[in-house]
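Notebook p. 47: complex prediction with IPE.
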Amino acid sequence: MHAAIIMDGNGRWAAARGLPRLAGHRAGADAVRRIVEAAAEFGIGTLTLYAFSSDNWKRPAGEVAGLMQLFGAYLVAEAAKCVEHGISVEIIGRRDRLGGELCAAIDAIEGATARGDGLRLRIAVDYSARDCILRAAALSGAGAEISHEHFSRLLGHAMHCRQAPDVDLLVRTGGERRLSDFLLWESAYAELVFVERMWPDFTREDLEAALREFAGRERRFGGLPEPRNKVLVPANAV
Ligand code: IPE
Ligand code: IPE
Ligand code: MG
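Predicted complex, structure tokens below:
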């Protein structure tokens, strides 16, 4: 199963406490640790987290610099634990606008965790779904006949990662109900779950609740009803 999360609401979480936005991003990084652990425990195969969109460069330089510093620190701090738990980590998105130190941290964690056969964790940084689609289209060659499968592989190349399955469950925290240029191609039949809670407050119980909501949905893919989605969490977990 592929779950994807738009981790939104760090700034509002901080503002509600009279704290600077970066304090919200720091609390958001703690939530990432918590949720990655829970996702591995629940047996989610692939988890894609939206950490920084290509449009987030529009934010003030101080906030952007703080976020980049947080990403690097997170990758350095978590590498050993990911190896230990068999979590493979991939960063998807553009690399050419990221700093040298962050790129080095990305290469290091991707290299160290490449053989992990547990949770596949993908973190989207400088990511734009529309940009990825344009790049994949350019790779396909003008006028070429192309299948969905082949295009999905090209999308992987365009994002510097292996091909991933389509998104099954897409969660957005922070109360907004939009996709903000995240995984547009891959979410064609994703089940959408919008959660009011701000990302720093998102807990493993909230993830469980989203998985239960998903399990109760009937997916049809344009055809006739399929059997109910398999529940990933143990029946006695909540
Ligand atoms: C999500 O939280 C994190 C990033 C986009 C980097 P926001 O920073 O968007 O928080 P809000 O939406 O302003 O509350
Ligand atoms: C989407 O959140 C990007 C991430 C969560 C990383 P934004 O806060 O940037 O989205 P908008 O601006 O509200 O659409
Ligand atoms: Mg936001």
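Notes: The chain is about 45% helix and 15% strand. The radius of gyration is 18 Å.
Next step: compare against the earlier run before touching the bench.
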